[in-house]
Input
Amino acid sequence: MTPVPVLRTLREVVEAVCEHGTVYLRYSEGPEEDANRGFSRDYEADIPLPGLSVTVATPEPWWSRPTEDWVARRLCKYADLGTASGRFPWLLSGRPVGNGPDHEPLVDQVRPVARVGAKALREAVHLYHERFDAGQDSRG
Output
């Protein structure tokens, strides 16, 4: 497998998202491991899913804030998935094949775009906490 470039800044991540149409974000041990495995798993139900579980890194058409806000929020909302040893965020493109048990998109025909570097992730966390009311929801 071709080495995946590392995006070192949040700006580079945003540029990659803007350049590639619909881009997905995944936290895992990386493209090579995922290619070997081929799919995600619903661990609660103990069944294989028809693709890899991802979140959408490309902003929705209704999003009226800067793209960097959307990207930073996506990176932060799922950062807990990267806390396990050897896991990291990376961007990919792929073909949607359904939704997982938590309504997350599932994709196959995966093509890695880039890995999100540690500095870019730190910048995303900083921006997220600066621009969002983190943790606020409809319960008040």
About this structure: The chain has a mean pLDDT of 92.
